[in-house]
Amino acid sequence: MNAKCITVRYEAGEYYLKNGVKGGATYGCYYKNGKYHKNRGFGWESVYAPSRLILVVEIEGKRTEIWIDRFFKERVGRLTNNRICKIVGAMPNFVKVKNMGNYYLVQDSSLEAWLMSAEI
């Protein structure tokens, strides 16, 4: 199924330390409100959210968002400003998507062609 590309949006990640966390409240790492929390001990906790590269597409008259950051991070590494500009500038008009029930995925063949046209 083809989807019309509307725009690509980048959301920067964040990282900070939080103090005053109860020691026995959680063990290890947990996910809450789009952020990962990791207990460091002695009342400290690391909180981080990964950066996201989001493709907004129109499928059958409806707009939806698809996360595409994982593909580009695996292929080219960290999403720097220069790489983001090249990816956004090379955005195709249409991509092939796969319906996964509750969400859509962009097919790897479309993403590979996008990466080749971005010349990263």
Description:
The protein is α+β, with helices and mostly antiparallel strands. The chain contains three helices and nine strands. It has two domains: 78 residues, no CATH class; 35 residues, no CATH class. A five-stranded antiparallel sheet has the order 7-6-1-8-9. The model has no long low-confidence stretch (mean pLDDT 92).
Unreliable residue stretches: none
Number of helices: 3
Overall number of strands: 9
What string, H for helix and E for strand, traces the elements in order? EEEEEEEHHEEH
Give me the secondary-structure category.
alpha+beta
Q: Averaged pLDDT, please?
A: 92
Distance between the termini: 27 Å
Sheet with most strands: 5 strands, antiparallel
The residue fraction in helices comes out at 10-25%
Within the largest sheet, what's the order of strands?
A: 7-6-1-8-9
Q: Roughly how many Å is the radius of gyration?
A: 18 Å
Give the amount of beta strand, in percent: over 45%
What's the domain count? 2
* Shape category: elongated
